[in-house]
Amino acid sequence: MAADSYEDIAVGKGDAIPALEVKPQDLYHAKSFWTRWIFCQDAKVIGIQYSITAIAIGLVALVLSWLMRLQLAFPELVPFIGPGEYYQFVTMHGMIMVIYLLTALFLGGFGNFLIPLMVGARDMVFPYVNMVSYWVYLLAVIVLVASFFVPGGPTGAGWTLYPPQAITSGTPGGDSLGIVLMLVSLSIFVVGFTMGGLNYVITTLQARTRGMTLMRMPLTVWGIFTATVLALFAFPALIVSCIMMTLDNLLGTSFFMPAMVQFGEQSEYSGGSPILFQHLFWFFGHPEVYIVALPAFGIVSDLISVHARKNIFGYRMMVWAIVIIGALSFIVWAHHMYVAGMNPWFGFFFATTTLIIAIPTALKVYNWVITLWRGNIHLTIPMLFALAFIVTFVNGGITGLFLGNVIVDVPLSDTYFVVAHFHMVMGIAPVLVVFGAIYHWYPLITGRFLHEGMGKFHFWVSFLGSYLIYFPMHYLGFVGVPRRYYEMYDSEFMTVSTNYLNQFITVVALIVGFSQLVFLYNLITSAKFGKKAGKNPWKACSLEWRTPEVPPGHGNFGKELPIVYRWAYDFSVPGAKEDYIPQDIGPSQVPEAEAEQT
Amino acid sequence: MKKKESIFQLLMQKPWDPTQVKVDNLHKGATLDLSKGKLGLRYIMVISTIFFCLFIVTYSDRLIYPDWQKMPEPLMLWLNTFILFISSIVFLNAQIAAKNSQFEIVKKRLIVIGVLALAFLIGQLFVWLQFISLGYYVSSNPANAYFYVFTALHGLHLLGGLIYWFISIRKVWVPSNIVIAKVKHTVELCAIYWHFLLAVWIVLFGLMLFT
């Protein structure tokens, strides 16, 4: 059987690994419209379902941000927004964007679509569980949206849901269904995500095709895989805190609720610790930043490499950095809690660990830049977004260094400086990658390109616009404008210039928001009218572009799974005819690239 | 082909290096020598362990305050623990029977296990009712709250296990369903999960007993 041919390959005689050795997989086959498009077990369809749902709920969060901005700059235009509504919008905007859009899109959307294709599998290892995962996610979204329609409206506790105020009357949704629905929705989300994560982890570990070692995987898969492992450790903290707070709210336990006097009356709670909730929440919350960022890191590495026609610089270090960042992200959580009061030594510890994360992160940034160095840079739209990501990420990351220091954080905490920082680093930066990735893989999903003109318009408006929005916010933070305030017109923080700046930010935010609608229009119309892309239009090396049909059919690959002979970055190999050698091209097919040492 | 390598060795590989390329070309794809079912089960057990550990951390954070009042330990709780313990032993037995392809014995053992699991759950409910009738409400003391939370969450995990138990029993019961390798595998996975839940319960029960 195989042993002889293995020997042959080991001494470099050829590349004939018997393809039939790759075990056939029992594939699920759809029998009707319902099982093909609705209750589908094909990871690609599930990925698209995840993406559409995430983008749809993300649009709700986008509209909420417009309303908030209008309230801050032109309150007379939105008389229906009171303080309560404003807090509800803040809360829902934050929670939707972080959890229901970014996490779901990166892992549920891109993870499902790309992992099996990139590692050369026919599907995820547990397709049924995968399907259920999507429907559970959808249920979480529906429960969340339902909270807009219950008496009292959604919760207005801020996206961090800190007790005691989150479940106290006076906070919007605090003594009604709003907060309950939020906690239930988050718990459902975690359950659904756990099912999806099971697939992402095990498919990556066990279902790769012949020749695909872990260190030959594209960095996109590394990013998504590591992010899922992080989620595996972090999400239990979220569900634990949700369960405990739900019990506090509904059954009157006092896990997080201290003794309080409300309206002159002693509440029924006593002895609980609100700080405990903060620890649990941020033990989830900080890794969550990297659950979003690591897939973005991975994807952007691939975009840069493909569109600069150069192998990624320092592949191993990129993998190490992903793993190290993931590990470190679990020992920095209390830097979100400096102002909650803590032992200075703890503050020192968490500040130090926070700053240490800058090392692997900077390493990644250097490697992206060095990959570009003397590359054959094609300024395609995905590349523009990738470049914009690097700049934005560096920007947001540097303000993170400021805020990681206790002594700087204390005065800046709860000002617009923090808003600017986290929007740059985990709002704009990952979203730029999402856009880049959509422009990059859209031809694979639909067989057509997105319209380039609209794409460029979308890019420039989003990129420059987000700087015009968030740069001034740093300044607002420095002069002391507090975040989360519904109205600041009469406060001493607001001077004439800060007022004008606020109005300017709002106008730009509306324009940037509008450009997203152009993108949406592009997404919908290009599926039918876009320029045909054909196979592998970007001339990438990774396996997702090597399917016999585009878009890839059921089972992804043809009769036999591809066999991998190289890593995913054989671009511009000296001597090779083309400037890329896909992963499934054996050495005998490219004899001219014998000395392919990149 | 060498199979075992540490995570560090793995991360040190240079995929572009010609000698590494030759080694990599022989790779069969999977990283671990485990079935996907077993790996899936480990994934679930890891998550559950983290989940319970986090509860235990919050528990130990809370019990040091003076308002903590320990709950009594009714005999019923010991009895339930014993039932769970026996069910795990029976499962061990079923596991061995499955290994030897004695499916008739497996059938009987699985039914016993189902009955024992239900008895455990009903027993736990009974303890709840007993406590409630004695005035130990969930909100009266943090120790009570943790007792109810721990028992409820452990019970829910066991209910989840019963779903998998049902799948196993179906695989053994219907003769046309018997694919020997699959039955053995399913029974083994279910058994591992059962032992895991016993371990979780012993930790939780021990914790409540001694604090």
The assigned CATH architecture of the domain at 44-253 in chain A is Up-down Bundle
Low-confidence stretches of chain B: none
The total strand number of chain A stands at 2
The biggest beta sheet of chain B is recorded as:
none
**What string, H for helix and E for strand, traces the elements of chain B in order?**
HHHHHHH
Give the class of chain A from helix and strand content and strand pairing. mainly alpha
**C-alpha termini separation of chain B:** 52 Å
- Please list the strands of the largest sheet of chain A in the order they lie side by side: 1-2
**Helical content of chain A (DSSP H or I, runs of 4+):** 55-70%
Name of the CATH superfamily of the domain at 44-253 in chain A: Cytochrome c oxidase-like, subunit I domain
Gap between N and C termini of chain A: 33 Å
Q: Which whole number gives the mean pLDDT of chain B? A: 91
Number of strands of chain B: 0
| CATH class type of the domain at 72-210 in chain B | Mainly Alpha
- What's the shape of chain B? flat
Assembly category: heterodimer
What is the CATH class name of the domain at 44-253 in chain A?
Answer: Mainly Alpha
List keywords for this structure.
heterodimer, A: 598 residues, mainly alpha, Cytochrome C Oxidase, Chain A, two-stranded antiparallel sheet, 2 strands, globular, disordered N terminus, B: 211 residues, Four Helix Bundle (Hemerythrin (Met), subunit A)
What does this structure look like?
The complex is a heterodimer of chains A (598) and B (211). Chain A is mainly α and 598 residues long. Chain A is built from 15 helices and two strands. Mean pLDDT of chain A is 91; it is low at 1-22. In chain A, a hairpin with a 2-residue loop joins β1 and β2. Helix content of chain A is 61%, strand content 1%. Among the domains of chain A are: 44-253, Cytochrome C Oxidase, Chain A; 533-593, no CATH class. The two termini of chain A are 33 Å apart. In chain A, strands 1-2 form a two-stranded antiparallel sheet. With 211 residues, chain B is mostly helical. Chain B has a domain at 72-210: Cytochrome c oxidase, subunit III, four-helix bundle (Four Helix Bundle (Hemerythrin (Met), subunit A)). Chain B is flat. Chain B has helices at 7-12, 18-25, 36-62, 75-99, 103-133, 142-173, 180-210. Chain B has seven helices and no strands. Chain B starts with 6 loop residues before the first helix and ends with a helix. At the A-B interface, α1, α6, α7, α8 and α9 of A face α1, α2, α3 and α6 of B.
